[in-house]
Write a structure and sequence with these properties.
With about 725 residues, the chain is an alpha+beta fold. It has 26 helices and 21 strands.
């Protein structure tokens, strides 16, 4: 594999920690108090002593890395505690130094920042991915207490990416992927454009070195011919600004390599098509002048219809503000212009780090910081409803998609959602309870399907109903992490409730065979049994029984104090069988191998994690359970069973025009839905058509088969299992 040339980085050879510390202090003196600079230097001495003897893969002393991280933050003009925490960010993780020692030497504030950035090293994880996900989850908790944690982590990741070339290729790719999927999008989400751009280009170089090198060479060759044209357009803009007495600066923008590569991939275009778009940033004095400047540009060059975006009136979710417009320039070249104030430009480049002021429990004037805290609050909510760390980090990746749509609530409030968001995403963005109770939606006063993708400018109204529940099918089309995690959490809760209900019925059935019930058992005996089984209460025990994780017969014996016997009693009277209604949900499922329907002789088996699985008594898979009588559940159908059950019918027909339509019409007339159709050519003029249809019971099925059998084109009909 070829090695791409990385972006400019500090020289790794012969680095001098003391000199670097001195340079850092000189930089800090430009905006910190002398006493704070002295404290930073003391942190350097403390960190250097803690990391004594440790070296990076490059061979340089380890302390040079924390100093470089601190310098990145100093260039962003962060406060003293952040700089100190950056210098000490690895001492808890990589040295014997304890968190309490850091707090004692410096402050509890610094110790919390350092601990927030530290990975979880004392826990054994099943995989590297799980360890990284759990460490990220820990960092999010720390971010919720102090947003500076993520700034330190981003600076740490930036320096690691600048020096990644000492790593073996497989590690480079893993770290680069994580950077491109998580840390660069986080930097964008927080509005820190300078760090985001560098992380993306460094990640691109490490992930795809050959592609990076080819694009970089192409960019270098194109730059010469482009510079003259950019200068000409900039001069024309400045001349028109002078005519209109507008004071400001025009800067020709150059696209960075990762954005060029991403556009080439997403739009399936070649380099020339992407590079033919010339970008300009125009910085003026105030908001009014921004709008005046937009008019000036449109009088100078023809604007493209529908390509003007007003992010000043409606800022992006990370606080970014600008006016964007696309123009047709001289020689029909495409121009893109961003118009903003100096203040907006500062926020666009530095995001939450612009005008850093961190005061706990006080309102922060910087809107980017306020939005960042709002985002972290959303992450916490998502985290509480995610089952595992890996599930949480997947939801975060989804949530970090940068493109947005802006829609309105019925009251006129603006909601920001990622591009591709649906009505269900909107409902969960309003509130989790609104999402769970959603049954329909109105877009611009018209009833629309719940999977409808939203577009900017629409007004969305959610219709809810008490007792409504989320549909598992929603997971197929929602795009926001919040909606996905909330739906999963609700389904787990509903599944737990259904499992507990089923488990209680199973346990009652097994206790009834012993002429007992939960109510007649001695309470002390029950408490002792629960403790022995390792569960906290009866509800938890019911749920585990309902999910098939414990055998009801064995649990009944433990609760009653009988010595456990593996085999349950057979031939229970009907009154003690588990009655199957057909609507028990996920914890009672019907085997696909035999597809039992009401009226069929059935048998149930407890399956770990799936609850009770119902089979036809003649199913070939039932033989597998003959030697496991403890897993048998004696079941029967209720007299009036609700719902439809899938059945496969194989119909041999004479192959002639219109036969499929004739069969489908007949089935539909008999009040049955066709789920799927499969046509198999047999031999000569005979074709086998397999219908998967929904029936209520055996009587309904028999009626359908009788009607089909009398059709002239039908030669043979049979129900198929498996």
């Amino acid at each position: 594999m070829g090695r791409a040339e990385p972006l400019p980085a500090e020289d790794l050879a012969g680095s001098d920690p003391a000199r670097k510390a001195s340079e850092l202090c000189e930089l800090l003196e430009s905006y910190l108090e002398p006493s704070q600079v002295q404290l930073v230097y003391r942190a350097y001495r403390f960190g250097a002593e803690a990391h004594q003897g440790q070296r990076r893969l490059s061979g340089e002393p380890y302390i040079t890395h924390p100093l470089a991280v601190a310098k990145i933050l100093a260039e962003m003009r962060l406060d003293a505690p952040s700089i100190i925490a950056a210098i000490l960010h690895d001492v808890i993780e990589d040295t014997p130094t304890a968190k309490e020692q850091v707090a004692q030497e410096f402050s509890a504030e610094v110790a919390e920042l350092v601990d927030g950035v530290s990975k979880l090293t004392q826990i054994d994880f099943r995989s590297k991915a799980e360890a990284q996900a759990e460490s990220f989850r820990k960092m999010v908790l720390a971010m919720s207490r102090d947003i500076r944690v993520i700034l330190i982590k981003l600076a740490d990741r930036l320096h690691n990416m600048r020096t990644i070339w000492v790593m073996p290729p497989h590690k480079r790719r893993r770290i680069a992927r994580e950077t491109l999927e998580i840390y660069a999008p986080i930097a964008q989400r927080l509005g820190i454009n300078t760090i985001r751009v560098e992380l993306e280009d460094l990640g691109f170089a490490a992930m795809y070195p050959m592609r990076y090198r080819v694009l970089k060479e192409k960019l270098k060759r194109q730059r010469g011919s482009q510079s003259e044209l950019i200068a000409h357009v900039a001069e024309a803009m400045e001349a028109r600004m002078a005519e209109m007495a507008i004071r400001g600066t025009v800067i020709g923008r150059e696209k960075h390599l990762w954005s060029i590569y991403q556009k080439m991939r997403s739009k399936n275009q070649n380099f020339k098509d992407i590079f033919d778009v010339y970008g300009f940033r125009i910085i003026v004095e105030d908001v009014d002048t921004c709008y005046r400047m937009l008019g000036v540009l449109h009088s100078l060059y023809k604007p493209k219809p529908g390509r003007v975006k007003d992010y000043i009136a409606i800022p992006k979710i990370n606080g970014y503000q600008s006016l964007h417009t696309s123009l047709l320039g001289p020689r029909r070249i495409r121009l893109e212009a961003q118009i903003r104030t100096a203040e907006m430009d500062k926020v666009a480049e530095a995001g939450i780090a612009a005008h850093w002021m961190y005061k706990e429990n006080e309102q922060v004037s910087n809107t980017a910081q306020a939005r960042a805290r709002e985002w972290v609050k959303g992450l916490l909510e998502m985290q509480s409803s995610s089952g595992t760390s890996l599930e949480f980090i997947e939801n975060v990746k989804i949530d970090l998609q940068p493109d947005e749509v802006y829609v309105f609530t019925p009251k006129g409030d603006i909601m920001k959602l990622p591009r591709g968001a649906t009505v269900i995403d909107f409902a969960y963005a309003v509130h989790s309870d609104v999402g769970d109770g959603c049954i329909a939606a109105m877009i611009d006063h018209r009833l629309t399907p719940l999977r409808t993708v939203l577009t900017t400018g629409q007004t969305v109204e959610i219709i809810t109903a008490p007792g409504a529940r989320p549909n598992p099918a929603w997971l197929d089309f929602v795009v926001t992490g919040k909606a996905r995690s909330a739906i999963r959490q609700s389904l787990k809760r509903l599944r737990g409730e259904a499992a507990a209900s089923l488990g209680k019925r199973l346990l009652d059935q097994s206790l009834a065979a012993l002429s007992l019930s939960v109510d007649t058992l001695d309470s002390e005996q029950v408490e002792a049994a629960l403790k022995g089984l390792g569960v906290t209460d009866l509800t938890m025990l019911y749920e585990e029984v309902g999910l098939g994780q414990r055998m009801p017969w064995l649990v009944a014996q433990r609760l009653s104090g009988i010595t456990p016997v593996e085999e349950p009693p057979h031939a229970k009277p009907d009154g003690q069988r588990l009655v199957i209604r057909g609507t028990e949900g996920a914890v009672v499922s019907f085997a696909r191998c035999c597809r039992p329907i009401p009226g069929d002789p059935i048998v149930g088996f407890a399956s770990a994690g799936r609850g009770v699985v119902i089979h036809h008594r003649d199913c070939r898979n039932v033989r597998e359970y003959q030697n496991q009588p403890d897993k048998w559940i004696d079941v029967q159908w209720e007299r009036e069973v609700e719902g439809e059950f899938p059945v496969v019918l194989a119909v041999d027909v004479v192959n002639r025009r219109g036969v499929l339509a004739e069969l489908a019409t007949t089935i539909s007339e008999l009040d049955s839905d066709i789920e799927s159709v499969q046509v198999d050519e047999k031999e000569g003029m005979i074709t086998t058509i397999r219908f998967t249809i929904g029936v209520r019971n055996r009587v309904h099925l028999a009626r359908i088969m009788r009607r089909l059998r009398v059709l002239g084109s039908v030669l043979k009909i049979a129900r198929r299992r498996g």
